[in-house]
Each structure stands twice: as structure tokens, then as C-alpha cells.
Known about the structure:
Layout: H1 8-25, H2 32-39, H3 43-49, H4 53-76, H5 81-92, H6 97-108, H7 121-141, H8 151-171, H9 176-200
Helix pairs in contact: 1-2, 1-4, 1-6, 2-3, 4-5, 4-6, 5-7, 6-8, 7-8, 8-9
Amino acid sequence: MAKRIRDPKAREHIVAAARRLLADRGLTATTVRAVAAEAEVSTGSVTHYFEDKAELIGAALRFNGAIAAERVVAAVGDRRGLDAVQRATQGLLPVDEERLTCWRVWLALWSHQPDDPAGGFGAGYQVWRSLLRRHLTEAVADGELPDGLDLPHEISVLGTLVVGTGLLAGSDLSTRDQLRRRARRIFNEHFARLAQQNSAV
Length: 201
């Protein structure tokens, strides 16, 4: 195991450097030596906190998941119902550099986390889906959405739209600005249709 943490801030600095490298250069290029260079520390400093590359990547992935979760929590705040659903969805969309970086990190590790460790995309995605279910249930109870709404289907639709947008933005930076504009339009139209569905009942 890695040694006792001497300086939590130094450790966080190294983890942040690893996250930047994962987003910019991918998993293969994110070596202990490369992370040390990115963080402007010695390789010994990196190995003091992390036994090997796998442990370092795991820490970077958890850090990335925490950033994404904070964005969603901040976006939702104390809202409820349909407003909270919209904000939870927007909180994950790659509409700024920080959220785009989250998606690029997940994309870099997409096929390399079969067990989906804590902090991986799958773990956070399930928490996000649970959040959507709670607020969609509120929206139905508050009369914003019709009774009998197929909640699992609606959650799957929103999840597919968010994940598809995130993966496209993360894999093709040349079209990201255009994709951001389209994403806003797609989600605005989707939520408008939901509201219209309720008013038609």
C-alpha cells in the first residue's frame, strides 16, 4: 500500500494532474512519470502517495466523479419536481470546460473499468438516475406531469440523451460548440413536450 499521506493538498495536486492527463491524452499516456511532470513533482512524490498507476487512476476517477456530482447538486439546489429534473440533467451536460473534462475522463476509461469501481461512471450514473426518479415522482405528485407517466422509460430516455451527448462531445472536440447548442435545444424541446403532454390530459 502507499505510504501515510504527508500533505493532503500535495496528494490532491497530483490527482488533479492525473485527471487532466486522462482528459487530454488518454489512459495509456497517463503514466506515473507523465503525471509527475504534469504536476511538476518528482516520480518519488507520486509513488509516496500511490503504490502504482492503477491506484493513481482510481483516485483520479473518484475525483472526477466528485466534481460531476458537485455540479449536479449545485445545479439542483433546493428545487423539486420538473425544475429539479431539468437542472439535474443540465448539470451533467458538457456545456462548459469542467463538465466536458468530466466526460473526457470517463471516455478515456470507458472500456477499462469492467468492475466499475466506486467513483466510476456507472456508480455515479445510478445515483443520478435515482435522483431523476425522485424528482420525476415529485413532478407527478405536484401535477406537473401526468399520472401514469412511465418513469423507468422517461429516466432511460433522459439518460440516453445525456450519455450520448457527453460521449459525442468528449470524442469530437471540433464539433463541441455546435453540439452544446444542439443539446440545449434537444433538452428544452423534450421538457416542453413533457409539459404539453400533461396539459393535454
